[in-house]
Structures are given as C-alpha cells and as structure tokens.
UniProtKB/TrEMBL annotation, chain A:
Residues 1-101 are annotated as: Disordered. The lineage of its organism: Eukaryota, Sar, Stramenopiles, Ochrophyta, Pelagophyceae. Gene3D superfamilies: putative rabgap domain of human tbc1 domain family member 14 like domains (1.10.8.270). It comes from Pelagomonas calceolata. Residues 74-101 have a biased composition (Acidic residues). Pfam families: RabGAP-TBC. This is Rab-GAP TBC domain-containing protein.
Automatic annotation (TrEMBL), chain B:
The keyword Nucleotide-binding applies. SMART domains: RAB (SM00175), RAN (SM00176), RAS (SM00173), RHO (SM00174). The keyword Lyase does not apply. It comes from Pelagomonas calceolata. Pfam families: Ras. This is Ras-related protein Rab-7b.
C-alpha cells in the first residue's frame, strides 16, 4: 500500500468540497496499517523489517541497490581446476557483499528480548551482517544456551589432538586429518589445526554422528564467518549436529538422503530419473550448500544458507529443504540435458541469483512444509493446504481479537459489515478437502457413476475408500445413486526422515478432493451450498422432458447466485457400434446428436439463463472415450484444492477489509466536525445508512474520547492481512476489486476529505 | 553415444585429481573432498584436438562419476552406480590400506550396480601417485597378481600420476574401449520433464465444442 504521502494530484473531488486553502494545507497523514508481521507455520509472529518513511523513489533506489549488491564482484578459488566451472561460475566472495540490512538489524537492537529474537529471526533469510554473525548465530541457533558460555571450551577441547584421535578411532582420525584442509577456500596451518581439533571434538562428543564428509565444509564456512576460536566453532557445529539438524550426518545417509532426493525428484516432477538431482542434493545437504559440483559455492551464498539454517524460525530442517527445493527449481529450469551444463547453471544461480534463490527458499520453507500436528510437519504438502490452514489460523489468532476490539468500540458501525463477514466465515469454515459434486437426473445415475469411475478411479464394483454413512441423505443405502466418496488420511504414506513425515510416493491429486455423486434434488440442494466444483452429467441416450431436471435447475441457480461454475458433460452410454448415432459421437452425425441431446437437457435445466455459460464436453463409454475430455475434467478436479484455499484467503482478506473499514471510519469520524460527519463518512466506505447514523455518531463521540492506546488496534488487522505471504498474496490482493476500492478510499479519498473537513 | 564411467577408491587416493587431469589436463593440490558424488563429461571426437579421445572411429561421450571415498557414503552408491558401463578402481601406491580395500570396492560395486554379467563386467585398476615412487608401499607385482585373480580375464592395470599426467589418458582410454567392447552402451536418457511450477491453478480448460 502506498505510504501516507497522499497523491494529491490524483485525489478525486471529495464529497465535501474543499475550500481554496485546502490545497495549500500540508497533507496530514492518516495512520496507515503496515505490513509489520507475518504468521509462520508454528503460529508465531515474525516481524518484518520496519518500513522507514520513504517515498516510492527511495524505495526503488533501495531495491536497485539490493540488486546491484547481488552482482558478482570477486572470484573464488581461482586455482580450482574445474574447467568450465571456473570459467563460467563467477562467485561473489566479498565479505561485505550486502550480507543483511544493517539498518534493519540495528533497529532490532532496541527491542526487548523476545521481540528482538522474533524480528531478527525474520531477518535471517535476508542475511546477517557479517559483523553480527558470531553473536547472532550463537544466540539464535541455541548454541549459547547449549554452551552456557560459548567462549568456554568443552571438555573435549581440553584434550590434546592425539587424545582426541584416540577417542574417535583411527578411521575417523585419518578422515578428519585428510579433510580438514579440503573444505573449500584457503586455510593456513593454524586454521587447519583448529578445524581438525573441532571436527575431532564434535566426533568425540557425538559418536552417533562421528565425522562425515561435508562437516568439514560446514566447519570451514563457520570458521570463515566467525573466526578461528575453537570453542565458538565447536558449539556452533555441535548445535547443528545435535540440535537444529540432529541426525543429519549420522548413520549411512541411506534413508535421509534418499528421502531428500526422492522428495526433490518428486517436487520437480523428475521422479528421480534425472541422476543429477540426487547427486546435487547429496552434496547440498551434507555440505549445507557449501559445495556444488565439486566446487565451493560463493562465500556469500554459503554464509547466507547458514544464516537461515542457524537462525530462521522455520528451523534447520525446513531451511535446508527450502533451499534445496529452490535450487532444484534452478536445476529444472536449466534447459541443458547435460548434467555438467546443469551444474554450471546452478553454480551461476548460487553466485548471481543468490537473493532470488534464498527468497524462493524462504517462501518454500514456509509453504512446502505444513504443520499438520504440533511439531509434525508434512513435507511436500500441497501449498493450498498451507494457505487454508494459515488463513484459518490467522483468522482465529490474529483477526478475531481485533474484530472484538472494533466491535466493542463501535457495535453499530461494526454491524454494517455483518453480511460480508458472514459470507467470509462460510468460506473459512470450509472443509479441508474441497467437494466435487457430480450431479445428474435420476435417469442419469449410470452416467454419473461412469464419470465418477473415470475421473476418480472409483470402480462401481468395489467399495469406495471410505463411504460416508452418517449423512442419511447421502447414504447409498438410503438413496440409491447418491454416494459421497471421502478418502481418509491413510492415503498419505509417510516414512520418517529427520522426524519429518515424507510422502514416499506421489499421491493422486484427486485424493485431495471429496466427491459426491448425487441424483436426488433434495440432496443436491444441500450439497450445492458447500460444493467447490460441479459436474452436471447428461445421459445422451435418455429422452428429456422440459418439465424435469430439478437437480440441474438447482445447480444452475446456484451458479447464478455466485456458486461454483458448472461443467456439463454429456455421456453417451450406447454400445457405440456406429448404428446408434448418439452413442458414436466420433462422426459428425453422432456429435450433432450428442449436442442436440445436451442442448435439450440444458434448456430444460434453465442453463441458458446461466452466466457465464457452462463449459461443455462429451464423453463416450465406448473404447473411443475422449481422453482429452477426461484430462480436461481431471484438471478441473486437480484445481479444486487451490480454488478452495484461495477462497479461504479471500475470505480472510474480506474480513480484514471489514475491520479496517470500520476502524478507519471511526478514526475519520473522530477527527471530523459533526456537521460533516454523515456526508463524507457515507461516501468514504458506503457503510452508513440513515437508520444507523445516529448510533454511529454516538460511537464516534465515545471513540473520540478514548485514549489512543484504547482504540482499535488497526495495525493488527493489517498484520493479519499481510500475514500470509508476500508475493502470492500481493498478486491476489492486487487483483481484488475490493482491495483496490479500499486502497483508494484509504490512500486517496480519506486524506483529501479529511483535509477538507479540518479546514472547515 | 553415452558411456558411464564410475571411479571408486578410498578417500584421498586421487580420484578427483585423475578425473580433472583427464578432462581438463589440470592438477591442483587443493582439491576439495568429494561429497556424495560429482561428475564430468568428456566428448570423444574422432580426429579432433589433443584433448579428445578417438576410440575406434566411434564418437562417444564419457560421463565420468567421481564418488566419495568415505566408507559411509557407500550406501548411496546404488543411485550413482546404476547403468555404469565401466568401473575404474583407484588406489594409492603409498597407502597399502587403499589397495587392500579394492576387493571391498569391487564387490560393493557389483552388488549395488547389479550388472547383468558380473563375471565379465569391465574394471580398470589404477595405481595412483606414481610421482611419489619413493614412498611406494604397494608393489606393482602385488597389484598385478590381484588383477589376474579377480576376473576371468586379467583386469587392465595402470600405474599413473595425476600430478605428472602419467598414463592417465591411457587408463581412461582403455576404460572407454572396454565399455564399448562390452556392448553395454546406453542411449542418452532424456527425462520426461514437467513444469516445476506445479499443477494448474484451476481447471478452466475449454471444451472443443463450446
């Protein structure tokens, strides 16, 4: 939203005419809500960086400087002999390469302990300034808590190197000795000794992990970032090995990395057939993105990865997987079929598109991992699942208290938003799984069953996975032809990996919807209210009577009333031998016949009055069934979860609109002379009617008398508004007429009218 | 034509150095430990420049997989070994343990890669770090004996120095020839790719008849 610098030139004529002096008045700012926080998977608030009072130009300048800062400036490991990688993968190794926003971090310093922790965790994905890394990593990773005093060496580091080697065994000792100088970058002899001792001490302290290649890279990145102090390095590495990434380097990796590779493969739809992705993923995971394709990644990138892994409140596992998924996206986008080419493309992305990769990673870390139970995450969950859950959580945790406060302050004004809120509540209360309704006339029961079988993989000869029987009207036994299919959670196969249930194989998108086959008007009426998608099935072989079709009439009436769009499918249930022109729709006569039948049926159902006209297709039962048509229907079903989630988010935004409108109106009313109240407040939001104006004005008087800190927490509604996520939400919000209308009212009309009112 | 070559051996024997010497004609003393696996490709053009390999007038692309030497990475091998056409076993002449572990590496490879003919699957044995002859602790004769007893035919054996570029080209050339002669070439695999961006947001596809 634009800042309070009101664009006066574009201000429309306010309802109250400003006098001539109004234009010369300095613009007075109406306090505008700010995107100050977002709600993360755990329901915790994470504060965004504070927004300074800058105008658009300076904001643009900031953006440009950030982009410029991401430009490579130096080269890393020029002596590395990887031809091609050396030539093409430029890296950015400057220590001052825009690691974090110092101003934002400095602003966080003044906060109290809890708020500071929240804010800097939120900043972690943007990078920690290099001069703060040691303190921030120790503090936010939990290493300080683990150590007590991280400058005090643990018992293991009080031993000599030889003693440590005898504790860990000759094999580990030999591996560590060989690898301590092979972690990327240049090291002197002292640094190598420190790395060796720290790796040995961690191996001694955590024998289940011992030493695994990759830890040497991580240790070296830590050393490059926080210095050469043994105890600090030990506690940070210990926190990774035994804390934020517990078990990551333990065992033989066969389960853990296999799961990552499989998940990444599935994510990128490569299904593990592409050999480079599991290979890359192994290296990424074990070196924490410190190495790629045999070469150290650019220093700023690997430091930024550790920033997120050590500090982000999403947690270490989520951070690694988020970055890995973002990097897998880069692999997939690379057009080259050659693995070396792909390796180079990813190296370039790490180097030149670091911010984009990390931005995407932070989004993925929040959205790809859905908290299904406390401390239990479902990896690779559909993002709509996240949106639905988050919208509900935000509504309950953040918005409801604000609404209560606003309602207490201005019950009459608040009551004007009742219908909008009611509609929004219905969407938010929606079942987690969207409902697909397959509707038909009683005579189309077979055709409906056929569509369900083709579309959902339901075989009429077998029982559906779970059959709802607690709804008598939907009980197949009670009403033949009415069946509601519901897949249980057993459809989700999970294997344990890092304590994160991971789907072991792709699950059909169709399992994410419930489906009901309904041929009874009464049942249809009931389910249409909650349906998210409707397929109206016509049996082309059944003669139609204009007086019939109550089910279909209900469907189209629902669509006209703003319900889900109806997709019409005409099913030809004949033998399809060619003699029956309806059954064989593969010739012109057959197609025309099918259309004719469908047209009659649609006319009977009143579909011609429906706006927009329903999409229409023909399916045949014969072996010549149109696969394309089935695919189109599958896409419709596939898109239902997303549509459902978007509806929930839109509902949340609608509620935000309501509360903001009320609160802003109150603010404005409180600041406006009584003589002008009615006209411009009604013009501002359009909420006030003659009947309600008196109690509202009373409320405004009471509100005016309130101390500032007792007034409705307007900013909190904005926090809920912005609480879902940046990019995607912005896209939705931008497209929302309601949002545009409200923004205009708040940004343009309200300040102008307020100025005019004050002048009078 | 694509030939997949897998290099195995203990940590620190010089697998990455050999690979870089062969592909890039370079040697560095500051190699990073290979984590998981890495790969390079080298195209072999008949009669092309000196860095190419001409093998019986056949154009091949060598896809060479460099694997981690640390023992615990062996469990990951199945993914990396799959579809290999030839395997190069590397040991360090100054490290007897790395030579003794050749048995383990060979068996591990055959177990995990499961080639159709385990008896005749082509292996090439490389004794690396010949430039450190003074520190040699594995006699040539001992290695040759091992090569003779571990296959129906004697395994090709090369003593190389990645640092001095001694016999590196010859060893890889032999590996490629063996793979070709086995006739186990695999075609370039082009994976089916689907848009990463996920499923369509809605199902508004249009019917052709509306």
């Amino acid at each position: 939203m634009a800042d309070d610098a009101a664009p006066q030139a574009e201000a429309p004529e306010p309802t109250a005419e400003p006098n001539a002096d109004a234009a010369n008045e300095p613009a007075r700012a109406i306090p505008q809500p700010r995107p100050t926080a977002w709600v993360t998977g755990g329901g915790a608030l994470t504060y965004a960086r504070p927004v300074p009072d800058v105008d658009e130009a300076s904001a643009d300048a900031e953006l440009h400087s950030a982009r410029a800062a991401a430009t490579p400036t130096a080269d890393d490991d020029a002596d590395d002999s990887r031809e091609g990688l050396d030539d093409d993968a430029t890296s950015t190794d400057s220590d001052t390469d825009s690691d974090g926003d110092e101003a934002a971090w400095a602003a966080a310093d003044g906060l109290t302990e809890d708020h500071r922790a929240l804010r800097v965790q939120g900043l972690a994905w943007d990078g920690v300034p290099q001069n703060r890394r040691r303190r921030v990593w120790l503090e936010l990773s939990g290493a300080s808590r683990r150590a007590g005093d991280p400058t005090v060496p643990p018992d293991e580091l009080r031993r000599t190197t030889e003693e440590l080697e005898s504790v860990v065994g000759s094999r580990v000792a030999a591996d560590v000795k060989l690898d301590c100088g092979r972690g990327g970058g240049r090291t002197n002899s002292r640094e190598r000794l420190v790395l060796r001792r720290v790796l040995l001490a961690v191996a001694a302290k955590y024998p289940a992990t011992g030493y695994a290649q990759g830890l040497n890279v991580v240790a070296q990145t830590l050393l490059e970032s926080v210095g050469c102090e043994e105890s600090i390095l030990f506690w940070l590495l210990a926190e990774l090995v035994d804390g934020r990434l517990k078990g990551w380097w333990a065992g033989d990796f066969s389960v853990s990395l296999g799961s990552i590779a499989s998940a990444l493969g599935k994510w990128s739809a490569l299904n593990g057939e592409d050999e480079c992705l599991p290979s890359f993923a192994t290296t990424w995971a074990l070196s924490l993105f410190g190495q790629h394709a045999g070469k150290p990644t650019p220093k700023p990138f690997r430091r930024a990865c550790l920033d997120a892994i050590l500090c982000s409140n999403e947690g270490g596992v989520q951070a690694v997987l988020g970055i890995a998924l973002a990097a897998a996206d880069v692999v997939q986008r690379c057009p080259s079929e050659d693995m070396v080419g792909r390796g180079l493309a990813v190296a370039r992305a790490f180097s030149n598109e670091r911010r984009q990769v990390l931005l995407e990673a932070s989004r993925l870390a929040r959205t790809a991992l859905v908290e299904v139970e406390p401390n239990q995450l479902l990896f690779d969950a559909p993002s709509e699942f996240f949106w639905l859950h988050t919208a509900r959580r935000v509504a309950e945790a953040r918005l409801a208290p604000v609404e209560q406060a606003v309602e207490t302050a201005a019950p009459s004004l608040y009551a004007t938003t009742a219908s909008a809120r009611k509609a929004a509540d219905r969407s938010l209360a929606h079942d987690e799984k969207p409902l697909l309704l397959i509707l038909g006339d009683a005579s189309s029961a077979d055709a409906c069953a056929y569509v369900a079988a083709e579309l959902l993989g339901v075989d009429n000869e077998r029982s559906p996975p779970v059959e709802e029987t607690d709804e008598p009207s939907c009980n197949p036994g009670a009403a033949p032809g009415n069946v509601r299919y519901r897949w249980g959670d057993a459809a989700i196969d999970s294997v344990s990996s890092f304590g994160v249930p991971v789907r072991s194989r792709p699950t059909a998108a169709l399992r994410r919807v419930d489906a009901a086959v309904v041929v009874d008007a009464e049942v249809a009426q009931k389910l249409l209210a909650e349906a998210d998608g409707v397929i109206f099935v016509i049996d082309a072989s059944t003669p139609w009577r204009r007086q019939s079709a109550p089910v279909e009439r209900a469907a189209f009436a629902s669509m006209d009333a703003g319900g889900p769009q109806v997709r019409v499918v005409c099913v030809t249930t004949g033998a399809g031998d060619g003699d029956d022109e309806v059954a064989n729709h593969w010739n012109a006569r057959g197609t025309q016949a099918a259309f004719r039948t469908a047209g009659t049926a649609l006319a009977a159902a009143g579909a011609r009055t429906a706006r927009p006209l329903p999409a229409f297709g023909v399916l045949g039962v014969s072996s010549k069934t149109t696969r394309a048509e089935l695919r189109a229907l599958s896409k419709l079903v596939d898109g239902l979860p997303a549509a459902c989630a978007e509806k929930a988010v839109a509902a949340l935004l609608a509620r935000c609109d309501c509360v903001r409108a009320v609160a802003t109106t109150l603010d404005a009313l409180a600041a406006t002379p009584p003589s002008r109240l009615y006209r411009w407040s009604s013009a501002l939001i359009g909420l006030v009617t003659p009947e309600t104006v008196a109690p509202i004005l009373d409320e405004a008087s009471a509100y005016r008398a309130m101390p500032d800190d007792a007034r409705p927490p307007l900013a909190a509604s904005a926090a809920a508004w912005e609480g879902l996520d940046g990019t995607r939400l912005a896209a939705w919000a931008d497209a929302s007429p309601a949002r545009k209308r409200l923004d205009r009212a708040l940004d343009v009309e309200a300040p102008a009218m307020l100025r005019a009112a004050q002048k009078r | 034509m694509l030939l997949k070559v897998v290099i195995l051996g203990d940590s620190g024997v010089g697998k990455t150095a050999l690979l870089n010497q062969f592909v890039n004609n370079r040697f560095s003393t500051s190699y990073k430990a290979t984590i998981g696996a890495d790969f390079l490709t080298k195209e072999a053009f008949c009669g092309a420049n000196a860095r190419s390999v001409a093998i019986d007038e056949t154009l091949v692309t060598l896809q060479i997989w460099d694997t981690a030497g640390q023992e615990r990475f062996q469990s990951l091998g199945v993914g990396f070994y799959r579809g290999a056409d030839v395997c190069i076993l590397v040991y360090d002449i100054t490290q007897p343990k790395s030579f003794e572990n050749l048995d383990t590496w060979r068996i591990e490879f055959l177990t995990q890669a499961s080639p159709s003919d385990t008896q005749n699957f082509p292996f090439v044995v490389i004794a690396n770090k010949l430039d450190r002859e003074n520190d040699r602790r594995v006699a040539t004769q001992r290695a040759q004996t091992w090569c003779a007893k571990n296959s129906t035919s004697i395994l090709p054996f090369f003593e190389t120095s990645a640092k001095a570029a001694t016999e590196v080209e010859a060893a890889f050339r032999k590996a490629a020839q063996l793979a070709l002669s086995q006739g186990t070439m695999q075609a370039d695999f082009i994976p089916e790719t689907i848009s990463f961006r996920g499923s369509p947001a809605n199902g508004d596809s249009k019917s052709s008849c509306c």
